[in-house]
Amino acid sequence: MAALVWGTRIKEEPIGSAAFDCPVCGERVIGDAFKVLKATHVYFIRGHFREIQRYARCRLCAVSSDLPTTAKPEVFKQLNIIFPTNGFISRTNPALIDKPKPENSNYPKSLEKTRHVLSLFHGILGEINSHKSSSKAAGNAEGIILLILMASLFLSMFLYDKFPNHTGLFLITLWTIALFLIIYFFRLQSTLMFKAAHQYLNIHIQRFMEFKHVQLRDLISQASTMKGEFKIVKRYLLWAEKRIDPNSYYTNIGY
Ligand SMILES: [Zn+2]
Fold first, then answer.
1. Please, are residues 30 and 18 in contact by the beta-carbon 8 Å criterion?
2. N or C, which end of the chain is more exposed by having fewer CB within 10 Å?
3. Measured between alpha carbons, how far is 234 from 224 in angstroms, rounded to an integer?
4. How far is the CA of 150 from the centre of ligand 1 (A)?
5. Do 156 and 80 belong to one domain?
6. Does 18 map to a domain?
C-alpha cells in the first residue's frame, strides 16, 4: 500500500551508441547506451524525472555495464556491426584512443574458444533475470499457487461433505487439476520472462551467430553443459529457437 502513496518510478531511454571497453567479454565494442531516469511520486503527483545512471549494452555479449562519463553516444543504427571504427571511437569515446584495448576480464585467455559464448550466456542470463521482478505473472506466481491450493482444499472439503462415498476419486481429480494449473502458471511465468527478454536478445543472438559463424543448435548444446542458474539459458534458447527471425535482423530497432 505504501507504494501507492509514496514511491519512485523508473524509466529508460535510448541515447544512441558509443565505443566502450566491455568488462565482461573484454572487447572494445559498440555499446548501445541508455539513460535511467527516476522520479518520486506522492499519490498521483509525480516529480521531475532525474537521470540517475547511464549504461551501455555490449553488442557482442549483451551484458549491460556502466557507461563511462567520457562517452558521447550518437545514433548508430547499423545493428549488425559490433566493433567500432577509429572514427567512431574518436567521436563517441575519445578517451579510449590512448588506452590499450582491454585484456580479457571475466573469462581467461585459456578459454579463448568459448569465451565469447560464455559472455553471451552471461548476458542472456542477466537479461532474463532483469525481467523476473517486472513480469506480472512472476511477481504473482506464489500468490496464484497459494490460491489454487486453497481453492482445491476448500472444494475437496465441500465435495467430501456432499459425496462421502466417492471422496478418494474426487480428491485425486481435484489435486491433479491443481497440479496441472500450477505447472501451467510456472510455464506462463517463464514464457512472459522469455518474451520480455527476447525483445532485446533476438538481435544479439542473430548478430552473434553471424559474427561467430555458429548455429543456434551449437549454442544450445553449449548451454546444455552449463550448471546452476545458467540452466535457464538453455531453456530460453530452446524457447527462442522458433522465434529468432532472420528477417527482423535489420528492421528490429529495439534501441
Ligand atoms: Zn561484452
1. yes
2. N
3. 6
4. 46
5. no
6. yes
